[in-house]
Write a structure and sequence with these properties.
Radius of gyration: 20 Å
Number of helices: 11
Oligomer: single chain
Number of strands: 9
Largest sheet: 7 strands, antiparallel
Structural class: alpha+beta
Shape: globular
Distance between the termini: 54 Å
Strand content: 5-15%
Amino acid sequence: MTTVRDIDARGAQHCETTALGVLLRHQGLDLSEPMLFGLGSGLSFIYWDSKNMGFPFLGGRVKPFDLTRNLAAGLGLELLVQETTSPRRGWENVVASIDDGHPVGLQLDSFYLDYFGSKVHFGGHVVAMYGYDDQNAYLVDTDQQGGAVSTSLTSLAQARAARGPMTAKHRSFTLTAAKGLPSPQGQIIPAITACADAFLNPPIANLGHRGIEKAGTLVRTWFQRTDDPQRDLPQAALLMEEAGTGGALFRNIYRDFLAECAQLVDSGRLRTGHELYSEAACLWTEVAALVTKAGESGDAQCLVQAGTVLHDLSRIEREAMQVLSRLGN
């Protein structure tokens, strides 16, 4: 068995920040999960629906791997990303890093992982790998999936080779603090304002505060969008609350990020943003509960109420991001 020495295999709530935490702690940089998420300008929103989808999807963060790129750029970390269409070359890339004493991040489809509880295809899943032997790979995943876990080399190969939405070609990556350990405090305001600007100025109506407004209108039609509301509506709510989001569609994590920042940066605008996202987090959990109740009871009025709350959320988050976008002034 070959493993990276002195690995800190702590899991966290979200997959990408879990993997980033493992890689950065091995570099000597130990940041909280909310700080990793926030410095990566990770918060967003998307209402995603198409003819080939069984049911609409609500997403609360930026695209897979954008968070990693944002974090590396902001902290001045060296991000080495390797992709290939060759399974053999993809495996060699991973082994070379681990043999050299460095954990490696992998983007893959969680459906194939032996330990994964929910067998749903998700090609944007990220894990940290720190060891291997003749049969198994040793990974760090979220607390929900077990933290330090293992999966067969066969299942790992299938997960990395998968194709479909959000997948990458045997993507592996490492992070290196090339010029000493960076201080996160100087990156707080740029990361927050970049996130706010993207949220306030989405290129299409499905994203940012406009996407939340659109969701508030369309959620009322969800009974017409499914032939099995008892399955699809509670599943949609579950994804908002428990699918690695930290609850409230990542709003709990961003709320905690802003609270941590307020201890480091004395700013009334930052405190106001934190208060508004504390309110938003509670309301997102309320939306999930209403969607679940609608699916279980068949009561369309629950979806009407969820739509009303979503319209309120669009306003509250827009106000929060408008305040936070002025932090640098």
